[in-house]
Amino acid sequence: MATVALIDYGSGNLRSAEKALARAAAEHATGHEIVVTDKPEVAAGADRIVLPGVGAFADCMNGLKSLPGMVDALSDAVLKRGVPFLGICVGMQLLAEVGREFGDHAGLGWIKGDVGRMAPDDPHLKIPHMGWNELVIARPHALLEGIATGDHAYFVHSFVIRPKASGEVLAAAEYGGAFAAAVGRDNIVGTQFHPEKSQSLGLTLLANFLRWRP
Questions:
Q1: What one-character-per-residue DSSP string does 122-157 give?
Q2: Domain boundaries, the chain
Q3: What is the pLDDT of residues 22-40, one digit of tens each?
Q4: Is 129 an annotated catalytic residue?
Q5: Does the annotation count 194 as an active-site position?
Q6: Does the N-terminal peptide bond of residue 123 adopt cis geometry, omega within 30 degrees of 0?
Q7: Pick the catalytic residue: 32, 89, 129, 157?
Q8: Chosen CATH of 2-211 out of 3.40.50.880, 3.40.630.30, 3.30.300.30, 3.40.50.2300
Q9: Has 60 been annotated as catalytic?
Q10: Which residues of the chain have pLDDT under 50?
């Protein structure tokens, strides 16, 4: 059976993500087993990898580095062997070169760009940005099949990824200014919103990820 490694590094909405992925696999008969793991050898052998994340950039990056061999295993699987990868919320932000939360902290560097604090042009808009927002599809992508501009996804965040290449923004959202809601290149995708909390849209996206052949 094909496996999806859901990386447990002490940060992330693991149980909700696990349940949502399992439901997407079952409802769409993709035949995937969802495996929550903190072991690099399990991640290395998986057919797909999902990296969740909740909290501060540096804490999440340190948590990932604290698992001996995990960063190397992920880099080998994703960058060298082309294993499909999905980052969620801070798990997506870690793809950037640097996170600028409480100082500058190096990320994985898989997406060129940085992560910076949201700065809405309306001072009445509260940070963190929390709740349902419309997506604006920037370009067609298999991850977003069946998802249209105007569909709503659920966000909880204070920081956003800012890719250097505009073509790596798959979808945007608006909160006192536009920001990247989904990014991707090659076999790597990430969402700022939480698919596991985004009801039917989230299940559609997760099913798309499970079927994706980059």
A1: STTS-SSEEEEEE-EE-S--GGGTT--TT-EEEEEE
A2: 2-211
A3: 999 999 999 999 999 999 9
A4: no
A5: yes
A6: no
A7: 89
A8: 3.40.50.880
A9: no
A10: none
